[in-house]
Amino acid sequence: MSQIRRAQPEEAQLLTDIFWRSKAYWGYDAAFMQRIMGNMCIKQEQIVNEWVYVIEDAAGQVAGFYQLCRADHGLHLEDLFIEPEAIGKGYGRQLFDHAVELARELGYNRFTLESDPNAENFYLKMGCVRTGQHESLIPGRYIPHMEYHLK
Predict the structure, then answer these.
(1) Which DSSP category does 25 fall into?
(2) Pairing of β 142-149 and β 51-56
(3) Contact 65, 21 (CB under 8 A)
(4) What per-residue confidence (pLDDT) applies to 33?
């Protein structure tokens, strides 16, 4: 049985590694991964100052994580990444549902996110709506802007 708990600051590198393995799962080439590397890591300060939660599998291994953070417009789902071997096992849904409940507890009625194009269908299934897009570092590739309204 899986368990969701608050991330610990000393897990920053572990979460960064999960981020990179999860991102690479979608087949991005080495040049793209190198271009985004400097901007894409989980820092201890984020774990301390924002809401970062991990999901552990039945063996107690971290299978994924998410991060909710404050933004000018309210609340933003900054990250939700799953270990590649755990994709499709329901961990993403469990983390998303946990984020929804946390947003509700914090008094928010919605949150925003920017989705990897490969994950857009997941977020649509979760009930998010697409509100826009912007071009990514790869010409012709667009990053969906999405929003989730708490019911």
Answers:
(1) T
(2) unpaired
(3) no
(4) 81
